[in-house]
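Appendix C: a fully annotated inverse folding record. The material below is reproduced so that readers can follow the format used throughout the book. The structure is listed first as tokens, followed by the designed sequence.
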């Protein structure tokens, strides 16, 4: 059975899993409330959307569920970015918004796409997934740096 999405590449899924675990642990260890909340949203939503991405040929209901999950993640990131005023989580909101827009385009005209369009959509989704992970990791590291600069040095 031919897999159309780049999600199906096991090395890609493992790389994304490594980034999800790394960004979640970094947010838990060094991040502020925005990074921790975004990491929690990401750790819950990412496995579900990846399961839908592993389907051989996603049908319309599966893509609609994936789109709903993307909207839920975008809402969670938006809440964290607005509530805690985090620029890095704002980047995650933008990346998640692009992913959601791609899903909506796929729902609207997915039946007329040929193989190369499926590949491009999968590759673009993966790039924005990596961008979200890096944004959460960046938020955690920025919080760590900010905290280190605020802590007085004792002599």
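Designed amino acids, in order:
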């Amino acid at each position: 059975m031919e897999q159309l999405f780049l999600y199906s590449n096991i090395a890609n899924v493992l790389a994304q899993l490594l980034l999800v675990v790394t960004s979640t642990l970094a947010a838990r260890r060094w991040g502020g409330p925005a990074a921790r909340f975004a990491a929690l949203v990401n750790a819950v939503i990412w496995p579900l959307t990846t399961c839908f991405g592993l389907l051989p040929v996603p049908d319309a209901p599966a893509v609609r569920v994936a789109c709903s999950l993307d909207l839920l993640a975008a809402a969670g990131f938006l809440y964290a970015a607005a509530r805690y005023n985090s620029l890095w989580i704002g980047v995650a909101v933008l990346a998640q918004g692009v992913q959601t827009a791609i899903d909506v385009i796929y729902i609207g005209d997915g039946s007329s796409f040929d193989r190369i369009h499926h590949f491009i959509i999968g590759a673009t989704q993966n790039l924005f997934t990596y961008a979200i992970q890096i944004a959460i990791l960046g938020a955690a590291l920025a919080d760590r740096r900010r905290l280190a600069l605020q802590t007085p040095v004792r002599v």
